[in-house]
Amino acid sequence: MMVRRLLWPACAVAAAIGTAAVVSVATGVTSFGSPAADAGSRALVEVPRDAATIQQADALVRPGGTILVAPGTYPEQVTIDKPRVVLRGLDRNRVVLDGGWRMDDGITITAPGVSVENLTVRDYNLNGVLVTGETGADGQGVGRGSDGYGLQDPAAYPPLDGFRVRYVTSYDNGLYGIYAFDAHDGLIEHTYTSGGADSGLYVGQCAPCDVVVRDNTAERNAVGLEADNASVRMYVLSNRLTGNRVGLAIGSNYQEALIPQRSATIVGNLVAHNDDPDSPEQADGGFGIGIGIDGGSTNLVARNRVLDNPTVGLVIESHEDLAPSGNTVGGNVFAANGLDFGYAASERAPGSNNCLLPTNTIAHAPGCLNGPGTDVAQPAAPPGVSFHDVPAPPAQPDLPPGTPYTAAVGLPGAVDPDRVGLPPLDLLAQGSVIRP
């Protein structure tokens, strides 16, 4: 097999990340010594030059080091279990982890401070990228709730502290495209997800989260973005959620710890045309729904553009015995939805103080809603497609040249939702296949 050279000299890469490796001026080749001697000690590992696989590179890299991956297809599952590692592809569209629908998870992060960036993950039976503090006896990430296998105890599995996933394309995976569970202090940005049979993006079981999900595109998933039991300083900002069956779902879930959900901020998103039949079926049969709040409280939904969702633009409802309360909806633009807004709190769990401000452009009177509401009529959803069959996305933008190699610490940084305005219709249109 011919080894492809990196896109810039190894000496330049070494200087950029401050590696202590010895670089030959004559050849530009980094000398690390024997793999056995260098296990877990290298500041920089290049795939496939220094290691044939990304998983082998993880064994060689030291905490705080960098793994650089040259263009190619890598049929493997990868677990990054060293803290503060940066895993970066040298070409987002040509560095491809391929599960061949025979492997479970593409990249699993089980160590704090890891950053995954500038690559593509496709065709895994479970998740494209999994970030989790929950691990099994074998040290592999678990990242799942109860549903027949026992509610996971966050005290036994402390949340993973610090993560970043950026400029990653994840498509045609059997559960989630990018999945952060039992993890906090994180950032998911500039990703593209499609073909997720559960959802493209998911954040679950964190309180306080201190997680920002921004500037992402999610389309042709069962749900574009889902956040269950994701509470307090959970920010969903400036995302393009188009052509899914449900655009955004946030709420409470008894299959996970830290119930109920509360205090998320959903601002500046384009949520449109979530009725694409060429998407996997949503588990509850949802179709044509823009935003759903399910048993969540004290959430802010502001300055979103919610268009052309044929069932409902935004619905607030109960979850089993959990009532929606204290949610605020203001400054949103609703248009061409089957129903702009639905209030569907149940008799069992009547809501309280869910307020529509007069600043919305909406076919519903402003005011605060209390008590039970009225169910939103859900038309029969068209048959879904297998996640195997969702078309591959177009090429996506690369990580900007010269972006520093920095671990995922001190995240998400300063967050000011007040500076996030109403999104334009062409928000993140580059690379999207869905036009509202």
List keywords for this structure.
single chain; 436 residues; Pectate Lyase C-like; 21-stranded mixed beta sheet; 10-stranded parallel beta sheet; 36% strand
Structural write-up:
This protein is mainly β and 436 residues long. The chain has a single domain (104-419), classed as Pectate Lyase C-like, CATH 2.160.20. It has 3 helices and 33 strands. The protein has a 21-stranded mixed β-sheet that branches. Strand 3 (42-47), helix 3 and strand 4 (61-69) form a beta-alpha-beta unit. The radius of gyration is 22 Å and the shape is globular. Residues 1-32 and 145-149 have low confidence and may be disordered.
Distance between the termini: 45 Å
Q: What kind of sheet is the major sheet? A: 21 strands, mixed
The proportion of residues forming helix, as a percent range, comes to under 10%
The Rg value, from CA coordinates, equals: 22 Å
CATH architecture: 3 Solenoid
What is the number of independent domains? 1
